[in-house]
Description:
With about 400 residues, the chain is mainly alpha-helical. The chain has helices spanning about 30-35, 55-80, 85-100, 105-115, 120-140, 145-155, 195-205, 210-225, 235-245, 265-275, 280-315, 325-330, 340-345, 350-365, 380-395, and strands at about 15, 40-45, 335-340, 370, 380.
Amino acid sequence: MEYERDATWPAVRYEPYPWKFSDPDYISKRQKAKHVGSYQAAVPPLIASLDMPSPSSVILQLVHDASVEMAAFDQQYSTQILPYASLFLRSEAAASSQIENLTSSAKAVSIAEVSSAAANANSIVIASNVQAMKTAIGVADRLDVDNIVAIHRALMQKSRPQIAGKIRIQQVWIGGSSVGPHNADFVPPHHDRIAACFDDLAAYIGRNDIPPLMQAAISHAQFETIHPFVDGNGRTGRALLHAVLAAKGLTEHASIPLSAGLLGRTDEYSFALTVYREGDPFPIIKLFCEAVLESVTQARRFAAEITEVRGIWFETAKVRKGSAANVLLEALIQHPAVNAELVQKITGVNASNALLAIKKLVDYGVLEPASANARNRIWVAPAILAALEDFAQRSQRRRY
């Protein structure tokens, strides 16, 4: 792969630490032999006061083009009456999860948002990523350590509550063996260094003298290098990326499903993070700019499909304006899966009238039961789910 290297950005250093097996009685002699002696843990540079290296004209043009497209996209959807932002956010959460090989259907994830009891494990995890994205956007005006930790808490609370929102107090590593860190692809800093690195990152994010897209990309890469949590760092880091973009005013109204632009190029993503740690920030900046351009194109197509679905609904479903069925019809773009309790909340009607509104939309083919189970029934909007699935499939195919 071709990339531009600039030695003025500091590379990660490494320092030795002694290694002790947590359960030595359960480790074979052969495995122990591969993990003898000290290991090397990263020492990330402190970046809060660093000057940005001078980018090439190619990088500058990419940053300009991606920033213009992002701002135009945000402005376009700031005036829309339909809740596209919710669907973009859901698509981002699904794509970000898929980068971590966490997959589930749009139907299953939508059901998990309504009821964990009716959902499978992966869909609950991905639905939690939706909540993490909402939390990230909600704390964008104050991205200190506590609020970044809050993003992780929202992400992990349902799947791994014992680590949710807790900075790690143990060594972790990426790749290699689960037995020890000696042959890992990357060993993040020892946990004793996390507090200082995390405070430094928050200070860097607080600066206002760096082009926002560059700042967001470097913030993400630095976060992934620190790797402050036992699990969930990738998804938290991508949610943080969106929070930085929102904080700097590039995405005030709609989160671009940027991870969708990364799905077809995960090898490049890993490579760019590696090269960042070697002292070159430009590949990760370039990759995110290209992902922005790709994801904006796909998101606009997605929005057009949703607009077409909504138009068909209102041509087909003869519901009185202001009725519970009409209110529900408007809300289905934001809530493609509903149960009776959620419909009551959306429409403000009692249980009987909520079921009547659901039945009316079922009769018109807008809704259908998610399963044959009559208890705790959930209904879904198949046309919205199909559009979400199509978007996900397109995102997996690289277009560069």
